[in-house]
Amino acid sequence: MSTTYILWSIFLGALGFAYFIYGKKQRKAIPLFGGVGLIVLPYFTSEWYFYVFGVFVVTLSAYFVKL
Questions:
Q1: d(C-alpha 58, C-alpha 11), whole Å
Q2: Number of domains, the chain
């Protein structure tokens, strides 16, 4: 793992945690699961650019999906 990957993981993991807490407090499923996705995503990626791309995909899908 590179230093870049670790720094992205820390920053975007904190963003995912904040998104998770927001979804929990507002009782909304999409931000809740989007936050979980952002927290879990580093376990499935090996390069920082795949991770950043995955974060954009999860964030945009959570933004555009309305239930």
A1: 15
A2: 1
Q: How far is CA 12 from CA 35, 53, 67, in A?
A: 10, 12, 24
N residues, the chain: 67
Q: Give residue-wise pLDDT tens across range 40-58.
A: 888 888 787 888 888 888 8
Domain with 39 in it: 3-64
Query: Would you give the DSSP letter of residue 45?
Result: -
Six token digits for residue 14: 């904190």
Query: pLDDT (tens digit, 9 = 90+) per residue, 9-33?
Result: 888 889 889 989 999 999 988 888 8
Give phi and psi for 44, each to the nearest 5: -110, 0
